[in-house]
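User: Last request for today: this protein with magnesium ion, please.
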Amino acid sequence: METTALVEVQNLYKRYTPDGLYAVADVSFEIHAGELFSLLGPNGAGKTTAISVISTLLQPTSGMVRVDGYDVQRDPMAVRRVIGVAPQELALYDDLTAHENLRFWGEMRGLHGAELQAEIAEKLALMELVDRAKDRVSTFSGGMKRRLNLAVGLLGRPKLLMLDEPTVAIDPQSRRYILDWVKKLREQGVTILYTTHYMEEAQELSDRIGIIDHGKLIALGTLDELTRLVGEHETLRLQLLQEGGGADLAAALQSVEGVIQASATDGEVLANVTSAEATLAAAIGTATGLGLGVRTIEIREPNLETVFLHLTGRALRD
Ligand SMILES: Nc1ncnc2c1ncn2[C@@H]1O[C@H](COP(=O)(O)OP(=O)(O)OP(=O)(O)O)[C@@H](O)[C@H]1O
Ligand SMILES: [Mg+2]
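Assistant: Here's the final one, the structure of the complex with magnesium ion:
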């Protein structure tokens, strides 16, 4: 892996009002050329805010951000020439056709003539939208709109592509299509900043992952480095017969030997344990003692969910 930093973020702070809370607080990371870097975090963590600053849409409150050596505040036009963005809120005109949307955004990026036409044709083919090129976006499915939004981000062959939660609210087939396509781009050497709240996606795609929560980068590294933070611990996942009761069980499990941390959402409890085998019986016993029935119990190897639980004491749910 090349070690040149295409993106440098140093001590970035961003708040939307002079005395408001920081949406991004003291965040630092680098993205190397050719790397796929994910920002993984729950709703409101600060992912879109970070992308907006890097893509020059928002000014940092303080800190330094450089893309390809250009400072986002001093040289925003130079930054814009090397980036492409597929924003979380689709940047598409419903009343225009797919082709017209690509032409509009291509012209905005300074493309014209034969070069623009060639790029539009290439992007439509890449996203398998050739048949629908002349249809208005208002007639598109959610998955098709997402694909077109990604095609727009790719216009002008950016060095750095930023994809802000590109698979939210689409069907599984479109999601698979997008994930495979992201991997292909990564193989072609495009540097990608990917945001998601899906652990599986961060796990599957990323060279390195930054976990962001309440505006702070709480962990940064490869999947291996991050799971090592949890040590050799495993996770017990218990599904209860009762809807409620999860919180009570999580609280009770905190004082069971071998349980490092436990948290509950709906009828499900996740417990970080030193040894799943050794804790299994005690966990079921604790549930029974509280009058709770266990529907299923599952042992999981350390993954990003475990890491998030370990770092925050909360579960990161899809
Ligand atoms: N335009 C704005 N004005 C004021 N506060 C904002 C604005 N945009 C975002 N925020 C706040 O900043 C924080 C971070 O929001 P942001 O949209 O960056 O999070 P996110 O990680 O992208 O979340 P999601 O997964 O829901 O997209 C939140 O507390 C949010 O309410
Ligand atoms: Mg967002």
